[in-house]
Write a structure and sequence with these properties.
This protein has 190 residues and is of the alpha+beta class. The protein folds into 2 domains: 145 residues, MM3350-like (Structural Genomics Hypothetical 15.5 Kd Protein In mrcA-pckA Intergenic Region, Chain A), CATH 3.10.290; 39 residues, no CATH class. It contains 5 helices and 6 strands, in the order ββαβαβββααα. Strands 3-4-5-1-2-6 form a 6-stranded antiparallel β-sheet. Helix 1 runs antiparallel to helix 5.
């Protein structure tokens, strides 16, 4: 499906993705094709949040985990519009079963704005935690350490995250540039 074919609220969905247990909340607002599969959505979320896609993940839609055994389908066969059929419907996305980054994804009312391509990030707040920092508890400890240059672990943690890491900065422009490059690569591959 081309961008020209998905203009209008029928062909696109707006979702808010929020990383659970973060205060202030780390979140992104995305506009995506209604036809995007959960397998492709995983890649979109990785780009939007700033993850590196080097860990396992799962989507939890509808039924509690213990009741899903007979209804499990491959993520490549489930479309986002099926997983989130109406405004306000939600699902969970878990990334990295060790750190257990849990995200809630909510379908929102879609704005009337049109964009040059999908997916696109239209809003967001705060940087994504670094991979392998120990989940939300480890991330909060990391932030506490980075705020105290006299801490015994400050130099080690600063070196690990890099001098350019600022937890308060989110670049929507950088995310959208990555989305644009990804769209270009997919077009060239077909």
């Amino acid at each position: 499906m081309t961008t020209d074919e998905i203009h209008g609220s029928e062909g696109i969905l707006q979702i808010k993705v929020a990383l659970c247990d973060t205060k202030p909340e780390i979140w992104r607002r995305l506009v995506v094709s209604a036809e995007v599969t959960l397998a492709r959505l995983h890649q979109v979320l990785q780009t939007a949040m700033g993850w590196e896609s080097c860990h396992m993940h799962e989507f939890r839609v509808g039924l509690p985990r213990e009741m899903r055994a007979s209804t499990v389908r491959q993520p490549g066969s489930v479309g986002l519009s099926e997983a989130l059929p109406s405004i306000g419907s939600s699902m969970m996305y878990v990334y990295d079963f060790g750190d257990y980054w849990e995200h809630v994804i909510v379908r929102e009312e879609c704005s009337e704005a049109e964009y040059p391509g999908y997916p696109v990030c239209v809003a967001g707040r705060l940087a994504c935690p670094p991979e392998d920092c120990g989940g939300t508890g480890g991330y909060h400890d990391l932030l506490k350490t980075l705020k105290n240059p006299r801490s015994k672990r400050y130099a080690e943690m600063r070196e690990w995250v890099g001098d350019d890491f600022d937890p308060d900065i989110f670049s929507m422009e950088a995310v959208n540039q990555q989305f644009k490059r990804s769209r270009t690569r997919r077009r060239l591959a077909t």
